[in-house]
Amino acid sequence: MGVKVTTKWLGDIKFESTNPSGHNLFIDAGEESGGKGEGFRPKALMLSGLAGCSGIDVAALIKKMKLNVDDFTIEIDANLTEEHPKYYDNVLMSFHFYGPDLNEKKLQRAVDLSVEKYCGVMEMFRQFAEVIVETHFHNKRA
């Protein structure tokens, strides 16, 4: 056990959560669930964690491989089950790379390395969801 996160109740249904980075974040439900929408939604944070984990891998590989990429984004569309406990059972993760000089083969290799080898959050998601990964190349600026 090497990571510790403390989440403190701030009243109503809002919380503040610590992170080993030293940056804190707020968690709250939407108004439809009795909250005030003053923080991140817990399940959506999981998707941000997935995108961030894989994104860090890919960004590091772009730097290591000295690839020319103007920009890249990761979009995630996830299906939430209808029965409680609700969880993501299908996740579509789309990488979008932008630039006039994209090395598509090496960028695909970077995505594959993250998805298949490095991203621990991806491995966790695979325990409960079908995860589909797509890669899109855009030769013009976003």
Automatic annotation (TrEMBL):
Residues in coiled coil: none
Gene3D superfamilies: 3.30.300.20
PANTHER family found in the cross-reference section: PROTEIN YHFA
The protein, known as: Putative redox protein
Origin organism lineage: Bacteria, Pseudomonadati, Bacteroidota, Flavobacteriia, Flavobacteriales
